[in-house]
Amino acid sequence: MTGRNLDCVICGTCVADVLVRPVPLETPAGPGRLFHVDPIEVTTGGIVCNTGVAMRRLGATVEAVALVGDDLWGREIVARLAAAGVGTAGVERRQSGATSATAVLIDDGGERSFAHHVGVAGTLGPDDLRRHAALFARSRFAVLGYFGLLPALEPRLAEAVSLIRAGGCRVVLETAGGGGALADLAPALPAVDVFVPSLDEARGHAGDDDPRQIIACYRGHGCRGLVGVKCGTRGVVLSPEPGVVVDVPCVPAPSPVVDTTGAGDSFLAGLLAGMGRGFSPVDAARLGAAAAACCVTRAGATAGLRGWDETLALAGGP
Asked: What does pTM read for this prediction?
């Protein structure tokens, strides 16, 4: 990796998030009803924005590769990424459709549901990634996500992973939505270096609720890198290498939980930031858990994030 001047290129979904809170999620609002909520906020979302901004907050150098519409939301996303220090040369505007957008409905406990329009992000494919091969050649890691929300790319996932890897950087895959189809995922797994999906998404791949059985499923399909399962408040089950499985507990949030949006993306940011600084996989995962703990203390995916020193202290050091 000598001579690479980027820590990470993040490719895939970037979203305008409209945050609505509090919304009772256990019972439907019903037709024709007016109910009052807190001030409605607009922020950025999706892996490009969430993990990209979190990695920048932790001191990493980051470039984005994504598609947005030529509209208000697209311009706002680019402006906010740039303001956060994320490079936007690889963010392309398309007139053929709208920017990806989500209404995030959040209850009093911070749990959330999503009303999502995939927009032009859903058209991202290997040819779009190929145009930015020079960025991959400069980077230590490349994150690709969300698998499960990129319908044009998923049938060609193995091709996309291979062309990113051809640039010499390590490939990180992240999931969302239903987690995507195992038939599309499996051919790509042997070339994926980091894959830690959430339990909700991973159980659909393996047909099992046991994180260790899920990890065994991924290993059985040829995944040789760092693999694991994010289990919410139960922490992360992590396999740094074949035959080794460890539990990494959650880090308690430093203040009350407000919104869990982006916690998984923040975990990934901390994990990669730690690995980029030479931490062991387990120590890097603890940093990821601390980043997630910071994330949930504010509304939206990035407002609660903290810098390297505070996050490392919360993690208890390397």
From this structure: 0.92
